[in-house]
Structure of Helix-turn-helix transcriptional regulator:
Amino acid sequence: MVTKQFSGSSEDADLRRADSLAREIFSDVANKWALLIIESLGERTLRFSELRNEVEGVSHKMLAQNLRMLERNGLVERTVHPVVPPRVEYTLTEPGQALRVTIDGLCDWTHRYLGHIETSRHRFDA
Amino acid sequence: MVTKQFSGSSEDADLRRADSLAREIFSDVANKWALLIIESLGERTLRFSELRNEVEGVSHKMLAQNLRMLERNGLVERTVHPVVPPRVEYTLTEPGQALRVTIDGLCDWTHRYLGHIETSRHRFDA
DNA sequence: CTGGATCCTGCCCGATACTG
DNA sequence: CAGTATCGGGCAGGATCCAG
């Protein structure tokens, strides 16, 4: 075994670690529910139950799971009001807002090419 | 049973159909492999086996599956050269290129906030 | 109302083998 | 080389129940 690192230097290791982290984040973010949640939040502050209504078709479990994930990554901020019944509010952080901008781009793209895609599908299915 | 439509007019039906189509497209596109494939393609033209090497970690099956899906939606163009062994090349269409631009934004975002996210995770995990 | 924990089902996806 | 079909294990995700 070698004491020194392989191809050389800890910079390579750092780069590899950053890459794997980027991949991880990419996997977290590139999922339907996360994107829809962020898009629904926009610049508003919403409660859990409100989000449940906003994000069409999301289950209780998926919403909770993704919100925790987004909170962990620092994309949403979770504030608990010590009242009964409990009131918990979610809002996008600055990184979250930045991400939302790119998601807006994705939505724009979807609507712009809706027609192209529909006809392309029809042709393909024949 | 009613002969007339519910809330009225076929425009509502059109809107609902467009929405469901948009959701469908969103689900197709908001998936890790599709995004990575599009990003890898960029403005190049690549063969199946080349894509297999480019997109780190993708399986034969997932690559074929996603390529068919992208082709169906008209985001990639598939050209078969009638030689042996067969040579099949993939390239982004104009809608595909447009989508790639927004994905680039996503990648930029990822790298810009890599640090934020890492520290946020660390704090959260405590 | 928020959000865990648990069970259970269906499907995703990897491995493999087979055609052109 | 490119692509499809099949099988099987594992995990995603819905339903439900409970706790604070």
Summary: Residues 47-49, 60-61, 64, 67-68, 80, 84-88 of chain A lie near DNA strand C (CB under 10 Å from a C1'). Chain A touches chain B through 38 residues (CB under 8 Å). Chain A has a mean pLDDT of 92.
